[in-house]
Design goal:
The chain has six helices and two strands. It is mainly alpha-helical. The protein has one domain. A two-stranded antiparallel sheet has the order 1-2. Helix 1 runs antiparallel to helix 2 (about 35-55), helix 2 crosses helix 5 and helix 2 packs across helix 6 (about 100-105). It starts with a helix and ends with a helix. The model is unreliable at about 15-35 (pLDDT under 50). InterPro entries: Saposin-like, SaposinB_dom, Sphingo_Act-Surfact_Prot. It comes from Diabrotica balteata (Banded cucumber beetle). Keywords: Disulfide bond, Signal.
Length: about 110
């Protein structure tokens, strides 16, 4: 179930696109932004936290996180690999130091 929630959040990331309202006035151009990167990071950090609770070593957590990214669709897999796996060691360290998933993601500028 947790993997489903994680995959669903990543699916929403693919829906974030700039929106252009036609007209003569360029000020009508609007960028729609949702905190999906933040939510994805928080979910990822929560899953890392759950692996830590099982007392798994950092190397095992990194491998499990990579497996999680690998089951995502290609565009989402890229986001996960490019942005989340690159900081999984930091996420691990901060959660070990009792920083909340939201706090970790704020520290990493995802939120």
């Amino acid at each position: 179930m947790k993997s489903f929630v994680f995959v669903a959040l990543f699916a929403l990331i693919g829906l974030v696109q700039p929106v252009y309202v036609p007209g003569k006035d360029k000020s009508l151009e609007v960028s729609v932004e949702f905190p999906l990167e933040c939510q994805a990071c928080e979910e990822f950090a929560k899953l890392v936290g759950e692996l830590i609770e099982k007392e798994l070593p950092k190397e095992t957590v990194e491998k499990e996180a990579e497996k999680l990214c690998d089951i995502l669709p290609s565009s989402l897999k890229k986001f996960c690999h490019d942005h989340l796996l690159t900081v999984v060691d930091t996420i691990y360290d901060e959660i070990i130091n009792n920083v909340s998933p939201k706090g970790v993601c704020e520290l990493l500028d995802f939120c």
